[in-house]
Design brief:
Strand 1, helix 1 and strand 2 form a beta-alpha-beta unit. This protein has four helices and seven strands. The longest helix is centred in the first third of the chain and has 13 residues.
Length: about 120
């Protein structure tokens, strides 16, 4: 059974490329471009892990990150933001910095799902 990865990205072209990359790597992608949609997915679908852009049309993804923690779902931030800009509660989270490579995304998702990174 393919792991379900919640991919939250508001740039359409990037979201399509990430979905293709993750699907080709053997993951089932649950995509969302808006915070409300991502929260809905987190609350109603089985999610094994999440790849989160921080800024979604001017809203931050932190409420979703908090919800995922409550649910015990690991996540990785995929963003141009640095660790220093994260709220204190999320400074232990892995960040894959934009622009990223396909390899860095796959490596981050694999390590997240293997439980090698703290969240």
């Amino acid at each position: 059974m393919k792991p379900n990865v919640l991919m939250v990205e508001d740039e359409a072209y990037l979201a399509m490329a990430l979905e293709d990359l993750l699907t080709d790597a053997g993951y089932h992608v649950l995509g969302a471009a808006r915070l409300a949609d991502a929260l809905e997915i987190a609350d109603h679908e089985h999610v094994d892990g999440a790849l989160l852009d921080i800024n979604l049309h001017g809203e931050t993804v932190y409420p979703l990150a908090s919800r995922l923690r409550e649910l015990g779902v690991p996540f990785v931030f995929a963003t141009a933001y640095s660790e220093r800009t994260l709220p204190q509660d999320f400074r232990d989270c892995e960040i894959v910095r934009k622009p990223y490579t396909h390899e860095s995304i796959i490596e981050a998702v694999e390590s997240m799902l293997d439980g090698r990174k703290p969240h």
